[in-house]
Every structure is written in C-alpha cells, then in structure tokens.
Specification:
single chain, mainly alpha, five-stranded antiparallel beta sheet, 7 strands, 6% strand
C-alpha cells in the first residue's frame, strides 16, 4: 500500500564551490521535491528530498545535489562536473571574428565592382553595403540615371550613397523645383556630390538665397541645370561677395537676377582672383568702370574669359593687326566677345578674305575691325554675296572697297533691305552713286521709319543736303535742323562712330543698392 503525504526540508543541502574557480554565473536553482511515504509490510518509511543547483564557469558545468539524511548519509555532498560545451543563454562573436567578417564582406563587394569594371581603390575607409546585392542595387540605380561605369569611376564615392536615404530624396527635391529629368545625367556628371547632400540642411538654403537675389522661381531650375555646382557653395562665402562687388562697380541691383540667370557661374568666381582683375584690366584699356558694369549686365559671360589665357593675348593680337590703341575701348565695347575668342587665327583668315575679294590691305583691315569688330566672326559666303550685290549696283571694285572700309556693316546687312533702300535711292531720291560712296551707311537706316519721312520733309522745304546731314542724327536733332534756313556745314557728320557714353547713360529707375559698397581692399 502507498500513502502520499507532505514532505519538509529537515536538512538543507549545501553548494560547494572550489576556491580556485573564476567568477561564477549563477543560474536559478532548481528544486525537485519528491516525498513518498512507503509503508511496506515491515512498516519501513522512506522520505526523500533532492535539491539541485547548477552553475556555469567558462565552459564547465557544475551540479550540486542534496539529499535528505533519511536517504543518504548526513553531510554527504556530491559535486558533478561536466566539461565541454557553452551553456550561457546567448553567444556573441568576438571582435576578431567581427573584423574578419567585415573584411570578407568588403572583399566580396570589391570583387563585384571589379567584375563590372569599377575600380574600388578610392573606397577604402568609406562605409559600403554589407552585401554585393545592395551594391548592385546602387549601381543599377545610377545606370538608370544615365551614368556609365566611366562616370562612376570619375567619382566612385557616389557608391557610398544609399538609394533610399540619399539619392531618391535629393532627386525628388530637384524634380519638385523644376529641374528636368532629362538633364539629370549631365547634372550628376558635373556635380555628383549633390547626392551626398541633405535637402533641408544643404540644398534648400541655397535655393532660398538664389530666390533672394531676384532670380524668378521659374528660372531657378535653369540656373541649377546650367551650374549645378552652386548647390555646394556656402551662403556667406564667394556668392555674397561676388554679388556685392558687382553692385559696387555699378551693376544695377534690379539687373542682378537677370545677370545670375544668364551666367550663374559668377557665384563661384572669387572677386580678388577673377572679377576684380578683369574689371580693372578693362579700365586700363580706357573703358570707364560704369561702362564695364553695363557690359556685364548685357553679357555677363565675359567674366569667364580667362584674363591671362585669352583677354590679354587677344588685345595684343588686335594691336598687331593695326587696330589703333586709342580705339581698343571702342572695339571691346562694341563686341566684347572679341576678347574671348581664339582670335589670332580669325584675324589672319578674315584679312586674307577681304584682301582676296576687295583688295583690302593691312591698314584698311585695321579700320574695318575698329568699326565693326564682328567682322572677325563673319563667314565668307555672306561677305562675297554682299560684295557682288554692290558691284551689280554699278559700283567699281575701288568704290566697293572704299564703302566697306568706311562702313563694314555692308558685309552683314539684310540683302532684301539693301535692295529696297537702293531702289528708293535711285527712283525717288534720284541721287548719284557717289553720294552712296561718300555715305554708305545709308543702307543701314530703315526705309519706312527714317529715310522716306526725312527725305519728304527736306524735299518739301527745298533743301539740298548730303545723305550724312539727312540721316546721321537723332530724330530730335533732325527736327531742330528743319528749323534752319540754311545748312550748317559743321553739323554734317560724315563718319559714324561708336559712342561710349551710350553705355553710361543714367537710368531713371535705378534704386539705391541694398548692399554695402565695400572698398576694393576687401576683395584682395
């Protein structure tokens, strides 16, 4: 017969710890209690109690059990030892294992990159994806944007940009601004660093600054497409000083937005190294500073002509081809492009052309360039066609040469307009051809707006005058002349010339600049 009853601990067990063991990691004790009272035929009673403790030291496991004295001998303690195995709750790789794994992952990524032609030498030290699959995703995304392996090799650090965290947010922002997706490829080829930028911290403040420079919102994307590098500039650095200097020399503040829209590269130019030396050199040629400011307003890209590489050598070439030094300011002011061209070969070519078709000599060629510097860019076909037209009108080769040297614009005018003017000259004005030889600029005036009304007024009054007296003056001056009883010979302007003062006429709508006019010393 078996009777189950309660059991109690009469003698607790003991945990024996060897004194030489290192610090222990104790686990919760496990208490196993078995209490069975057996009453066999001889009424023998047996009560048992077992208590187990486990502890782990390094890779060894110790067990301690205590059995009630009624089952085992009093004071008897059993220490079990199990060697081998790691029985802590979780395991962590060692630092060396982690380092080796990282090296192995990077090696696999490098192997993938080399396999597609990308040189990863510059990527050492850059945080890269753990797996080649993630790197493949980045490369594929860049390919979809139009970037080639060569483009990536030109700036391999772009591979450190995450598609989701870096590339997509930046491209989305540019798209919202209006930057055309069709321009993304060229945009990123020129300035791939933009993919590292933060939209909020880096890009948005630059865009706000551009808007503050009176660049219209619709023009912002065009500015960025033309000069993406501007997104990497500091607001208080080169951008602000270049704008302040331009305003200081006379560029109208209301024109700054247009100037920057047409040539945003100005924002990246250092005043002391680029802009100021350029302005001062043009001044040294004899162009007033305010006239320089007006030239920059109209053609801001002239600031990009290398002073030492282009401008100075071109000025020297003009002098070599018989352009008079005193007229250099007029030549540059009429055609600023002339100081940025590969000029000397053009001068050689055009001098040869004019010599071949109308026998223009070196000295006369210099006069032609002084009066129409654009002649250096004139193609031969229109020039020959205009010379043929003048010959067909009855002018001799000598007369054509004289007319062209006096008024080189004859080589570039609209032939249909020239024909209309010549027909009116012959049919209505009935003047000799010598009058046109003396004043070939007749062909440059509008028939309906100027020639006809003035000729009728003079004919009505019965005056006899030269073509120069009739045409080579403003409408206001002509009205004044009509009040004369006789013609003042001193007023007969026979040779039109460029007037530098037209560049410096005051503007009624100019307002005071919001910028402080810093001294030149601030830009040295």
């Amino acid at each position: 017969m078996t009777i189950r009853s309660y059991a109690g601990i009469t003698k607790p067990g003991f945990l024996l710890v060897h004194s030489e063991l290192p610090t222990l990691s104790l686990l919760k004790p496990k208490l196993t209690s078995l209490s069975t009272l057996k009453v066999p035929g001889n009424h023998e009673r047996r009560i048992g109690l077992i208590t187990r403790f486990q502890c782990s030291v390094a890779d060894r496991t110790f067990a301690s059990s205590s059995v009630d004295s009624s089952v085992s001998k009093p004071g008897a303690t059993h220490l079990g030892r199990k060697q081998g195995g790691f029985s802590s709750l979780y395991s962590r790789p060692s630092l060396s294992e982690m380092k080796n794994e990282k090296i192995a992952n990077r090696a696999r990524v490098y192997e993938f990159l080399r396999g597609i032609g990308i040189v990863p030498d510059e990527l050492d030290g850059l945080e890269l994806p753990v797996t080649a699959e993630v790197m493949r995703e980045r490369v594929d995304f860049l390919h979809k944007l139009g970037l080639t392996v060569e483009d990536i090799n030109n700036y391999p650090l772009v591979l450190g940009c995450s598609v989701k965290k870096n590339m997509v947010p930046v491209l989305d922002y540019l798209g919202k601004l209006g930057v055309r997706k069709s321009t993304f490829t060229d945009f990123l080829r020129r300035y791939p660093q933009v993919l590292h930028a933060s939209v909020v911290v880096d890009l948005a403040p630059v865009v706000a600054y551009l808007q503050g420079m009176d660049i219209k919102p619709n023009d912002i994307p065009r500015v960025l497409e033309r000069y993406p590098e501007v997104l990497g500039f500091k607001l208080e650095g080169t951008m602000s000083t270049s704008v302040a200097y331009l305003v200081g020399i006379g560029v109208a503040r209301r024109e700054i937005g247009g100037v920057l829209t047409r040539y945003p590269e100005i924002l990246g130019m250092r005043v002391g190294r680029v802009i100021k030396p350029f302005v001062e050199y043009l001044e040294s040629l004899g162009i007033p500073r305010l006239a320089v400011a007006r030239l920059i307003e109209k053609q801001p890209h002239i600031l990009g002509f290398g002073l030492e590489e282009r401008v100075k050598p071109n000025v020297k070439s003009l002098l070599e081809f018989n352009v008079r030094e005193a007229l250099l300011p007029s030549v540059v002011a009429q055609y600023p492009e002339i100081i940025g061209l590969d000029l000397k070969p053009k001068l050689v070519s055009q001098q040869s052309l004019l010599n071949s078709i109308i026998d223009v000599g070196p000295e006369d060629f210099g006069r032609v360039v002084e009066k129409m510097p654009q002649v250096v860019s004139l193609s031969s076909t229109p020039a020959r066609r205009h010379v043929d037209f003048l010959k067909n009108c009855g002018f001799s080769l000598q007369q054509v040469r004289k007319m062209v040297v006096y008024c080189p614009q004859l080589l570039a005018l609209n032939l249909n307009i020239m024909k209309l003017n010549f027909d009116y000259f012959q049919m209505e004005m009935k003047r000799p051809l010598d009058d046109l030889v003396m004043f070939p600029a007749f062909f440059t005036f509008g028939l309906e707006s100027t020639i006809k009304p003035r000729h009728r007024m003079v004919a009505k009054k019965g005056l006899k005058c030269s073509l120069a007296w009739l045409l080579n003056c403003s409408d206001e001056k002509f009205e004044e002349r009509m009040s004369y009883d006789t013609i003042d010979m001193e007023e007969m302007e026979t040779e039109p010339s460029f007037d530098m003062n037209t560049l410096m006429e005051p503007r009624s709508d100019e307002s005071t600049s919001d910028y402080d006019e810093d001294s030149d010393d601030d830009y040295v």
